[in-house]
């Protein structure tokens, strides 16, 4: 009976809020302004009541309404059946920082939150960038640390680097979720700090426009030059949580503003910051995705940055960025915001290749079977590798894309096959295809690849992979500790230790 009353009270509050919203829409302009202030107050009061009466998340979950999608796990493939492995390149890292947020809060992430490639691609590598070409292809490997009788093969794609002063001018349109849910855990506070870091790193020729959305979307600031940075900073600081979540209207206004101020030969990008949950207008990611694909074709791209635990939609944020020809990251701390918006800003903003695909062809005389670790939701049909109408991935300046394979070799590791890379060169607007031999010497893994193998195995264990059922977190920890070289490596070691403690 108590649970029934809790649910009834919550529905009653939502009903009155909806009625109030309807009355506001029909009022005069002066009445609407007064009513908006009242609605903001009511929203904050409702948020407080909601937190007080909200029942525990269902099915034993630690956080309510966390939306992820299960993509399965790649199997081993016999080269007698298929010699080709084809997938879209991916530089997203959101899955890793979502996992980190779970672990730091003292709970394990659900299996479906794990995407192995986003764990691996979170970490910088020692691979050299090309000096003249768009990409450099690196292939190396050695005996696997976890699969007895197998080798671990790395295909590393390193994009060309662009100096800050050589970056294109950027026209950025911030689309900021200010709905009531962004008041939880002071999410909007972290958004403000994060966007201020981004603005501080921009150049004088760049400009920023701001759209916000709660129950309705509205333009807060028309595109403004960084020469007027104080105006931009003030507009960000004044944001307050309000109303429901009309992501569709917010994105529509953001794209319209970006289109109105579109500049040739510049970066025209919409930057969405949100917890990803929409409950007004079009709320499913399939419907919203259909509205942004045309803009991507017109060179208005989309990057998404997620915030919050509980009431968070990883599926929407990841798929929006994928279809908007941009990148997805999850910001769980100010340190992560600093990493993305200071240390990696040029790569985050400037795209060097679109619709990029990788195809690895294994020689059946040399390789018995293989398995790609991750990229399950980036799979491309082999016959579509050279079909340029099929969507691939987008890669920013200086980014590295790492693909790891477990392979069973028949003889030695020389001349195992060929790796091909196909993409639209953003500078020349021409489709290019490059290739490299698939071979490596020796059985010892390079030290940075040893570390990445620990990261990949950690992800496989957390994700419940069948192929990691014989592995242990203790063996992952031992390898990670022995191969760690940088600050972020040691932070990963601590995460593994925390995970071991949580699983006991």
From TrEMBL:
Pfam families, per database record: VWA, vWF_A, YfbK_C
Organism: Aquibacillus albus
Leader peptide range in chain numbering: 1-20
Compositionally biased tracts (Polar residues): 33-45
Keyword Metal-binding in record: no
Keywords in alphabetical order: Signal
Keyword Signal: yes
Gene3D superfamilies cross-referenced by the UniProt entry: von Willebrand factor, type A domain
Domain of life from the UniProt record: Bacteria
Ranges of residues in domain VWFA: 171-345
Region (Disordered): 24-47
Protein name: Ca-activated chloride channel family protein
């Amino acid at each position: 009976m108590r649970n029934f009353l809790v649910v009834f009270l919550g529905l009653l509050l939502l009903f009155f809020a909806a009625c109030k919203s309807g009355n506001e829409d029909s009022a005069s302009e002066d009445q609407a302004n007064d009513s908006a202030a009242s609605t903001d107050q009511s929203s904050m009061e409702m948020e407080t009541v909601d937190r007080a009466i909200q029942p525990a998340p269902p099915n034993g979950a630690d956080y309510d309404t966390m939306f992820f999608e299960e993509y399965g796990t790649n199997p081993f493939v016999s080269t007698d059946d298929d010699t080709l492995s084809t997938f879209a390149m991916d530089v997203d890292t959101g899955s890793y920082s979502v996992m980190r947020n779970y672990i730091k809060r003292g709970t394990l992430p659900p299996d479906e939150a794990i995407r192995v490639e986003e764990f691996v691609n979170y970490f910088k590598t020692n691979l050299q960038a090309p000096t003249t070409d768009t990409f450099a292809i690196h292939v190396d490997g050695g005996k696997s640390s976890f699969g007895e009788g197998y080798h671990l093969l790395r295909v590393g794609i390193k994009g060309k680097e662009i100096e800050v002063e050589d970056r294109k001018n950027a026209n950025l349109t911030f689309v900021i979720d200010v709905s009531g849910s962004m008041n939880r855990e002071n999410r909007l506070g972290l958004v403000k700090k994060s966007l201020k870091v981004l603005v501080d790193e921009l150049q004088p020729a760049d400009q920023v426009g701001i759209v916000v959305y709660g129950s309705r979307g509205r333009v807060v600031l028309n595109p403004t030059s960084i020469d007027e940075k104080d105006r931009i900073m003030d507009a960000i600081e004044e944001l307050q949580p309000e109303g429901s979540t009309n992501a569709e209207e917010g994105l529509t206004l953001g794209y319209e503003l970006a289109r109105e101020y579109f500049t040739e030969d510049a970066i025209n990008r919409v930057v969405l910051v949100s917890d990803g949950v929409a409950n007004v207008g079009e709320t499913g990611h399939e419907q919203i995705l259909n509205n942004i694909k045309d803009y991507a074709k017109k060179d208005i791209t989309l990057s998404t940055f997620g915030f919050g635990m509980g009431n968070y939609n990883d599926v929407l944020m990841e798929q929006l960025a994928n279809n908007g020809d941009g990148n997805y990251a999850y910001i769980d701390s100010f340190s992560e915001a600093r990493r993305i918006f200071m240390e990696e800003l040029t790569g985050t903003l400037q795209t060097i290749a679109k619709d990029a695909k990788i195809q690895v062809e294994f020689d059946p005389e040399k390789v018995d079977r293989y398995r790609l670790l991750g990229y399950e939701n980036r799979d491309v049909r082999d016959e579509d590798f050279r079909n340029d109408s099929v969507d691939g991935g987008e890669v920013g300046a200086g980014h590295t894309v790492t693909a790891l394979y477990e392979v069973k070799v028949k003889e030695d590791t020389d001349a195992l096959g060929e790796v091909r890379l196909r993409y639209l060169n953003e500078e020349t607007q021409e489709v290019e295809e490059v290739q490299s031999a698939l071979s490596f010497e020796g059985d010892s893994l390079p030290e940075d690849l040893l570390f990445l193998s620990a990261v990949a195995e950690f992800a496989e264990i957390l994700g419940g992979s069948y192929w990691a059922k014989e592995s242990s977190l203790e063996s992952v920890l031992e390898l990670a500790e022995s191969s760690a070289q940088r600050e972020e490596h040691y932070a990963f070691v601590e995460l593994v230790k925390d995970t071991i403690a949580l699983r006991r």
